[in-house]
């Protein structure tokens, strides 16, 4: 005999369902909603500084579905299900970058170059819509193929602009003429790039550029990076270059570098400090970067000195130079003499000059500043220096820092010594590293079935190795010590990570940069300085709880995440249940596919894994 529970589906699906069964189902649903609604969710639980991700042991679709069902009921009970999905912005905003509206800046009174600087305060009100991809946008090629060829429709640059650049190859790839191509490391390097890199290495006393790491050079700030040609070469040498260049409405160096899978962000040498702490980089490189360094009473050189580590190098190739390593020793004394004179005032030593490339080395002796002539630049009071777009200063930073360690004496790679863990308990640092090793393995096992089971491979693709070749540009939006980045390096994932430290979180950015990682300070109540569709994956551990007490609207944050995320890109949230509830409701409004993962450990922590769709309207 069939049980009543077995007959119920047939009764419900039949043409004349019994009234008693309908009443019973209705009462059960009301009871479930009442029970689930008893937990307050209008505010988050108490916020911990940086929550450590829970380590879970398996990927369970049943657990996931239970959590999804739970949140569906919560969404209905809270009335969030009635919120409408957001529409696409107009075509004119395909390459929209907030905070860089030159016309609005001029109208507000900014001049003398400051109209090209970042001014988020001018246009805080944004239309709430989704930045659409260009009409012929295509998913970028997987790394490393995407380093050497990009789809021309993906970047706002004309073929004429491409061909007129001396830093790029002078040919297009493929018969369809829909790609820009760059020579790989195995081919001929246009403009003598390998010769130039070897020349720089020899000028600082090395046998070849393969010895940069041995000389303490692992992080390079590449100013005006010329579409990432030099940066791509440094990446092949296992260095970490970060390209910065001014915002450009078309022909952007930063957009093209990121499209190639190279670290880059918008940054200006105009009137404000870069969002990096003092003593951040081992080398600052400027080849035809278009900056007149002796302007503003040397304040631009002081900013270079601020971010340069003791013993670090400033490499300047003047605008009239060529990068072929010719034997010419001509140099323009009228333009370089002021720079040379000012460099002595900030304790730099001109160690080499060849052709029109000049290399200065910053002193390793902190007492040099006290022995200068009377009237020299004063030393800054760095006690409360927060490097977030502060005005340029006319004093020397970093001289009292515990991080004043010559680059030649620093650890190589992400594993710092106890002496280099300034302001951090060594046991906390090493525990964090261990946690992220385990968490990364679980993240990857989690993403593999979602990416490759639910989304068939594209025509012509080979069977992928899950999932690192699907992902190249990663942003950790609340990076803490850079543990996720370190774990990815250890697992040999072919990615790079932009480690972001929120502006009002504990400032761990110096430690991240000392590990040789890419990193930046950022206020998540403002747009990030990058172009649309430039990251494959965004990771946010505890960020939503951290921002719950801030002045910014969460929808604006999610819109910004959608703007910088590529179509078919991924977002991983790790947070408390209340934050995850809110995040899933917002993700639905952005058309994201969203899945909640129960960690199966009895905690209040959940994962929310989202994927941005490829919308082609």
TrEMBL record:
GO terms for molecular function: methyltransferase activity. It is found in: Endomembrane system; Membrane. It is an enzyme of class 2 (transferase). Gene3D superfamilies: Vaccinia Virus protein VP39. InterPro entries: Put_SAM_MeTrfase, SAM-dependent_MTases_sf. Coiled coil: none annotated. GO terms for biological process: methylation. Its EC number is 2.1.1.-. Pfam families: Methyltransf_29 (PF03141). Keywords: Glycoprotein, Membrane, Methyltransferase, Signal-anchor, Transferase, Transmembrane, Transmembrane helix. The keyword Ribonucleoprotein does not apply. GO terms for cellular component: cytoplasm; endomembrane system; membrane. It is a single-pass membrane protein; Single-pass type II membrane protein. Belongs to the methyltransferase superfamily. This is Methyltransferase.
């Amino acid at each position: 005999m069939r049980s009543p529970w077995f007959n119920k589906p047939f009764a419900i699906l039949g043409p004349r369902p019994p009234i008693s069964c309908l009443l019973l189902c209705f009462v059960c649903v009301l009871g479930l909603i009442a029970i689930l609604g008893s937990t307050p969710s209008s505010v988050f639980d108490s916020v911990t500084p940086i929550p450590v991700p829970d380590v879970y042991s398996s990927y369970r679709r049943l657990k996931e579905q239970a959590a999804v069902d739970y949140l569906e009921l919560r969404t209905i009970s809270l009335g969030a299900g009635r919120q409408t999905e957001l529409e696409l912005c107009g075509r004119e905003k395909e390459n929209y970058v907030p905070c860089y509206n030159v016309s609005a800046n001029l109208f507000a009174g900014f001049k003398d170059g400051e109209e090209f600087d970042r001014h988020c305060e001018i246009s805080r009100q944004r239309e709430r819509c989704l930045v659409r991809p260009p009409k012929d946008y295509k998913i970028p090629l997987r790394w490393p193929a995407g380093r050497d060829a990009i789809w021309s429709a993906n970047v706002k640059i004309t073929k004429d602009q491409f061909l007129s650049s001396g830093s790029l190859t002078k040919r297009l790839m493929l018969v369809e003429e829909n790609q820009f191509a760059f020579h790989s490391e195995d081919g001929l390097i246009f403009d003598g790039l390998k010769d130039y890199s070897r020349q720089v290495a020899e000028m600082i006393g090395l046998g070849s550029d393969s010895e940069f790491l041995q000389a303490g050079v692992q992080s390079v700030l590449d100013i005006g990076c010329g579409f990432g040609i030099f940066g791509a070469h440094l990446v092949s040498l296992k260095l970490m270059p970060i390209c910065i260049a001014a915002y450009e409405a078309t022909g952007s160096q930063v957009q093209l570098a990121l499209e190639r899978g190279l670290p880059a962000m918008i940054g200006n040498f105009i009137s404000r400090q870069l969002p990096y702490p003092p003593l951040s980089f081992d080398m600052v490189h400027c080849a035809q970067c278009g900056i007149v360094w002796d302007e503003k009473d040397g304040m631009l050189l002081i900013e270079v000195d601020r971010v340069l580590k003791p013993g670090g190098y400033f490499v300047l190739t003047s605008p009239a130079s060529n990068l072929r390593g010719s034997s010419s020793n001509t140099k323009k004394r009228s333009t370089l003499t002021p720079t040379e004179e000012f460099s002595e005032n900030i304790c730099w030593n001109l160690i080499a000059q060849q052709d029109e490339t000049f290399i200065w080395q910053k002193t390793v002796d902190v007492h040099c500043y006290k022995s200068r002539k009377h009237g020299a630049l004063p030393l800054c009071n760095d006690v409360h220096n927060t490097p977030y777009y502060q005005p340029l200063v006319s004093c020397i930073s970093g001289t009292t820092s515990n991080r004043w360690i010559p680059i030649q004496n620093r650890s190589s790679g992400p594993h710092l010594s106890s002496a280099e863990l300034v302001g951090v308990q060594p046991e906390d640092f090493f525990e964090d590293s261990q946690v992220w090793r385990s968490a990364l393995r679980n993240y990857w096992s989690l993403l593999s079935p979602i990416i490759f089971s639910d989304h068939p491979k594209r025509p012509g693709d080979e069977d992928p190795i899950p999932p690192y070749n699907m992902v190249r540009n990663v942003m950790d939006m609340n990076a803490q010590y850079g543990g996720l980045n370190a774990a990815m390096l250890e697992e040999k994932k072919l990615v790079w990570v932009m480690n972001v430290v929120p502006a009002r979180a504990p400032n761990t950015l110096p430690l991240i940069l000392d590990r040789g990682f890419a990193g930046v300070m950022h206020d998540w109540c403002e747009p990030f300085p990058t172009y649309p569709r430039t990251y494959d994956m965004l990771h946010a551990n505890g960020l939503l709880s951290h921002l719950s007490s801030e002045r910014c609207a969460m929808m604006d944050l999610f819109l910004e995440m959608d703007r910088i995320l590529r179509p078919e890109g991924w977002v991983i949230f790790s947070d408390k249940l209340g934050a995850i509830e809110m995040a899933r409701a917002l993700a639905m409004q952005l058309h994201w596919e969203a899945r909640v993962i129960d960690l199966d450990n009895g905690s209040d922590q959940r994962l929310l894994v989202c994927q941005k769709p490829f919308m082609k309207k």
